[in-house]
């Protein structure tokens, strides 16, 4: 009987250690929590909105996933344009200013991420900031960029020079406008 109790206690101790280790590892790797990112506040209308530096992780959680995931799944970028755009995406970085409360952001941000994903762009090449309805953030990240509407996607070359912007609405599509910006053929 003593042997069974000792065996049971040993197995229980090993299982709890293994469970704790696995849980900690998964949580850290999965969320990458930074207290300065993915902050939320209530809008004047009582809606939960994102503010300040934001990562893709924020859009995998409710309430933002409610609009992000369906639009992301429905959008299919033009394959021919993506074939030309994908190698060019290696040479650029992005800044995005979005409003989780904004219908234009809710339409185009998932599409933007779909294009980045299909183009195999690492998320480290994107800095994203969520703004309030008055186009401000808690620490003013938007001020140097003259943000007048959201979403605003700014494209930079490898030297950090701004190549162009998609402001509020991509025309005719996000992938086509990105291609034109990077190639320098966008109509002003």
Automatic annotation (TrEMBL):
Is Signal among the key words of this record?
Answer: yes
| UniProt entry keywords in alphabetical sequence | Signal
- InterPro entries (UniProt xref): Thioredoxin-like_sf
Residue ranges under compositional bias (Low complexity)?
A: 23-32
For the keyword Signal, the answer is: yes
Start and end residues of each stretch annotated as Disordered: 23-45
Signal peptide feature range? 1-18
Q: This protein is called what?
A: Thioredoxin
């Amino acid at each position: 009987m003593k042997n069974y109790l000792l065996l049971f206690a040993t197995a229980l101790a090993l299982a709890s250690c293994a469970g704790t280790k696995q849980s900690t590892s998964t949580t850290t790797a999965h969320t990458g929590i930074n207290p300065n990112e993915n902050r939320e506040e209530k809008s004047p209308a009582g809606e939960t909105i994102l503010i300040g530096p934001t990562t893709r992780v924020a859009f995998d959680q409710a309430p933002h996933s409610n609009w992000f995931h369906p639009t992301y799944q429905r959008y299919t970028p033009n394959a021919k344009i993506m074939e030309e755009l994908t190698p060019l995406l290696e040479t650029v970085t992005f800044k995005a200013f979005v409003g989780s409360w904004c219908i234009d952001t809710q339409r185009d941000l998932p599409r933007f991420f779909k294009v980045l994903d299909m183009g195999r762009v690492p998320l480290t090449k994107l800095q994203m900031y969520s703004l309030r309805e008055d186009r401000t953030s808690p620490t003013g990240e938007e001020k140097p960029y003259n943000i007048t509407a959201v979403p605003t996607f700014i494209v930079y070359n490898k030297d950090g020079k701004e190549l162009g912007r998609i402001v509020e609405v991509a025309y005719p599509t996000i992938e086509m406008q990105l291609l034109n910006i990077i190639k320098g053929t966008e109509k002003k």
